[in-house]
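We modelled the chain as a single entity of 281 amino acids. Its sequence is:
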Amino acid sequence: MSIYKEPYEKFEKLHPLELRGTEGMAVKLIDFPSNPYLAILTGQKASWRPWQLEFTPEEIRETIDGISKGKIWAGQSLESINFTFAIQNISRACTHQLVRIRIGAGFMQESGREGRWHQAPFITPLTILEDQDIHQKYVDGIVDMYDWYEEVQKHGVPPQDARSMMPHAIAQNMWMTINMRALMEWCSKRLCCNMQWEINTLARMVRDEVILKFPHLGVLLKSHCVREGGHKVKDNTNYYDPGATNNGNKVYWDLEGNMCGQASNIGEDQLNDLLTNEFPV
């Protein structure tokens, strides 16, 4: 069962178009380089003799480990690695957070000019699901907006204007292409459990997709607090266990008890198997 969807499934769905939390969110890695490790290592070697186009698994592991620990700077090489993701059912509030990436990424988003947004799902946050009265009023309000959106178009209002009344909760589909350097920077912020739940879950699902295809690249995607050993704690978002450490660094946890930035559908044993099998010793 997905850790991303399980917390929401116990709550009643009040409308056929309602998506509880992240239950409808999906991420698929649809395009990627054939050999990103070769691109990274040849880029690193381009500045030094001897010229090299073949690398042993040990050389690849050492280079990726050096990048992970900040001992090797590979910014330009990482910019040559591009991934393309298909993203389904995130709110417009979330899409507007996502497109703040301005360097190293490109986006295509579902259009609102077709006049069919009243057929789109809408997303209900956990904090609203937990209160039955607020939940009912929330759904009733969104359904009213959907009805008015459809009604004003019947009276001649064009879809481009009618969409102004639609909620940020409306679910959208997106296409994102992003290079590895930009993805690492984005994940350093969005994987932190200080982030809003939806963009945080999206970041975790994006990272999972990279890990499944290129495990040694996927482990480079980590939150700044895991990478640097600390961040400012916000009430009701996470908490710090002073008795816990991770390789000597402080450990922060989200409210589900997952180490900040590390919760994943990919368990530790599966990750170790993926890493081992990608470059067998």
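As a brief sanity check on the tokenised model: The first strand starts at residue 18 and ends at 20. Confidence is low (pLDDT under 50) at residues 232-253.
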